[in-house]
From TrEMBL:
Organism: Arthrobacter saudimassiliensis
GO cellular component entries: cytoplasm
A GO term, aspect molecular function: pantothenate kinase activity
Highest taxon, organism lineage: Bacteria
The protein's name in its UniProt record: Pantothenate kinase
Reaction(s) the record says it catalyses: (R)-pantothenate + ATP = (R)-4'-phosphopantothenate + ADP + H(+)
Recorded metabolic or biological pathway in which this protein acts: Cofactor biosynthesis; coenzyme A biosynthesis; CoA from (R)-pantothenate: step 1/5
Length: 329
């Protein structure tokens, strides 16, 4: 099936006689799956176990029907970017190296965007045109906990103001400019903080994937009324992983409960105090955190950026992608 749909809650413009127009084409999963033709999936069950996040129901079928066509589409975009680069350098009479193709992956906490980013990294590495694919999450650009405490932002961690936005912009700008080596802070989900003295080094990848809550946020307006740069200004392609808020809430609670016997059980974990909670206590605690922090951030800051993506992957209640909204070109 092919029909058009708008991922944003805003009203659509109408032409009056033929209904509403939208910049997106909607494809259901079966139609999308056929776009990969007879290409064989490069991943196996061991890869699936390694790549999927806690609570994600990633399967070989999902890889074949959702991510294989997506990797093929991205491969085509990378090739087109290369052709445009060649045409531009010929026009200018210059010889310059291609810069990395940058992909942004956005979405709520617990929606599975990290799994999507990891799968894409593995899939794109298997294409001969893009053997060097790096993945950086925006967690590394959160202010350290001590700074968040100083600013009174510890309970707003993950909100736009909790990130060192200038450092993040400098990082992606340097990568996109073709710098030989660019460094990013390293974040630990165990200690829930920036790791002092440790960095992630990115050296001219073919593709850079940038994953995070707010990567599609629009540019801020400066004090003088002018708009600054947005992180998405450096993206060649962007993806938003979407689901109903009620689904994401339940996924967050389930993940929190599973972590009690996982990461939370480590004495070094920032959340070790939750390890011994009963099922009922864990659910109540998780819902409290969700309602106080994650849901307000989703509704106010993350969800409004959905319509800025070039591709929206919509999931159903079992974490399976069921439809795709692709921006028309």
């Amino acid at each position: 099936m092919h029909r058009v749909s708008e991922p944003s809650p805003r009203p659509l413009p109408s032409n009056g006689s033929e209904g509403n127009f939208t910049p997106f084409v909607e494809l259901d999963r079966s139609t999308w799956a056929r776009l990969a033709n007879e290409i064989k999936s490069p991943l196996n069950q061991e890869d699936i176990v390694r790549l999927r996040g806690i609570g994600d129901e990633l399967s070989l079928e999902e890889i074949r029907e959702v991510y294989l066509p997506l990797s093929r589409l991205l491969n085509l975009y990378v090739a087109a970017a290369g052709e445009l680069h060649s045409a531009t350098t010929t026009f200018l009479g210059e010889k310059t190296s291609r810069t990395p193709f940058v992909i942004g992956v956005a979405g709520s906490v617990a929606v599975g965007k990290s799994t999507t980013a990891r799968v894409l990294r593995e899939m794109l590495r298997r294409w001969p045109e893009t053997p060097n694919v790096e993945l950086v999450t925006t967690d590394g650009f959160l202010y350290p906990n001590a700074e968040l405490e100083r600013r009174g932002l510890m309970q707003r961690k993950g909100f736009p103001e909790s990130y060192d936005r200038r450092a993040l912009l400098r990082f992606v700008s340097a990568v996109k400019s073709g710098a030989e080596e660019v460094r990013a802070p390293k974040y630990s989900h165990l200690t829930y903080d920036i790791v002092p003295g440790e960095e992630i080094v990115v050296r001219r990848p073919d593709v850079l994937i940038v994953e995070g809550l707010n990567v599609l946020a629009p540019a801020r307006v400066r004090a003088d009324g002018r708009a600054g740069l947005a992180l998405s200004d450096f993206f060649d392609f962007s993806i938003y992983v979407d689901a109903r808020t009620s689904y994401i809430e339940e996924w967050y609670v389930r993940r929190f409960q599973k972590l009690r016997s996982g990461a939370f059980a480590d004495p070094a974990s920032y959340f070790h105090r939750y390890a011994d909670l009963s099922d009922e206590e864990a659910r109540e605690t998780a819902l409290g955190i969700w309602k106080r922090i994650n849901e307000p951030n989703l509704v106010t800051n993350v969800l409004p950026t959905r319509g800025r993506a070039q591709l929206v992957l919509s999931k159903d209640a079992n974490h399976s992608v069921t439809r795709m909204l692709l921006r028309k070109t």
